[in-house]
Amino acid sequence: MICLRCGYCCDHLDVMIVDPRAIRADGTIDPQRTSAMVSKPSDTRCPHLEFRDGMAACTIHELACYQGSPCQLFVQFGPEDDICILGGYFRSIRTPDDPA
Ligand code: SF4
Ligand code: SF4
Questions:
Q1: Position in ligand 2 atom list of the atom nearest CA 75
Q2: What's the confidence (pLDDT) of residue 90?
Q3: Could you tell me the pLDDT band of residue 11, with boundaries at 50, 70 and 90?
Q4: What is the four-CA torsion angle of 52, 76, 19, 23, rounded to 10 degrees?
Q5: CB atoms < 10 A from the CB of 97, how many?
Q6: Where in the chain does DSSP place strands (E)?
Q7: 3 lines ligand 1 (CB under 6 A)
Q8: 9-to-25, 29, 30, 35, 63 alpha-carbon distances in Å
Q9: CB within 10 Å: which end of the chain, N or C, has fewer?
């Protein structure tokens, strides 16, 4: 799946993410924490999402703590060489009160 970096999935999906407070300086999860994952409800901006030159970027995407997380595994769908259609879907169901 080719990501178009719209960021819609990171705003609109209900997904478990790595708790920002659980990430150590080396990018791994603090083993002392009893719960390293937190719920990111739908229609809520993920604390790990940033926009750089208008392109969505996950600030923990390359870190060890992100690998194998429910969030990472959730987005691995569709053919590898096809563009993502999720962002278009979220735009199509957007209401006038939802400028995102
Ligand atoms: S909705 Fe698709 S294209 Fe947009 S950021 Fe998510 S994975 Fe990438
Ligand atoms: S952890 Fe990264 S990929 Fe997952 S919702 Fe947050 S910004 Fe998006």
A1: 3
A2: 82
A3: very high
A4: -70
A5: 5
A6: 15-18, 37-40, 49-52, 55-58
A7: yes
A8: 26, 24, 27, 24, 19
A9: C
> Which of 84, 92, 94 best tests ligand 1's pocket when mutated (most atoms within 8 Å of CB)?
84
Residues 40 and 53: their CA atoms lie apart, in Å, by: 24
pLDDT confidence tier of residue 77, bands split at 50, 70 and 90:
low
Pocket test for ligand 1, best of 1, 2, 8 (most atoms within 8 A of CB): 8
Q: In the chain, how many H helices and how many E strands?
A: 3, 4
Asked if residues 48 and 69 have their Cβ atoms less than 8 Å apart, the reply is no
49: tokens are: 């999402």
